[in-house]
Amino acid sequence: MKYIKFLCLLTLLCLLPPLTTVAAPAKPNQQQKPVQIEADHMLSTPKDNSVFFSGRVVARQGMMIINADELTVYYNSTGKKGKVNAGETKDIKQMWAKGHVKINQDNWVATGDTAKYFAAQRKIVITGHTKVWQNGNMVSGERFILFLDSGKSIVEPGTGKDERVKAFFYPGQADKKQTH
């Protein structure tokens, strides 16, 4: 039992440091900040190079906070698949958040049903009743795509006949605090 706890802790310590920010292109030191994940349950599956968190999940790195019902982290291993060796590092390949997803960073808030982070493309895709607030302004659609390096974002409508992207801009609201 102690070995399993040690293995889970070691997996987390090796896995999480390279997590990137969500809201804007990452500052060089942002990616180096420690990551803290809290949840009601955790399941590490070294064979699949994944760690699954469930129940009131809160992930933090620097000024970024992700809340969700579930979070699965998929990682690339520098060692043999399924092995966790001392000094081995894990690079995040993908992260999938599901259920009541909310992402906060500075003056930026996004909500949706799911969120996926793709490390190779440095891209985040939030889907399902997506809303994004920044400086008092709001954009909504079915799918929100953010390219972290360029800061470019795309909002897409749902597939229904009358579904459209909606944007609300409020001049002079940049200094007001967000409460979403």
From TrEMBL:
Keywords: Periplasm, Signal, Transport. GO terms for molecular function: glycolipid transfer activity; lipopolysaccharide binding. Residues 36-151 form the Organic solvent tolerance-like N-terminal domain. The keyword Transmembrane does not apply. InterPro entries: LPS_export_LptA, LptA, OstA-like_N. Gene3D superfamilies: Lipopolysaccharide (LPS) transport protein A like domain (2.60.450.10). It holds the Pfam family LptD_N. One of its GO terms (biological process) is lipopolysaccharide transport. GO terms for cellular component: cell outer membrane; outer membrane-bounded periplasmic space. This is Organic solvent tolerance-like N-terminal domain-containing protein. It comes from hydrothermal vent metagenome.
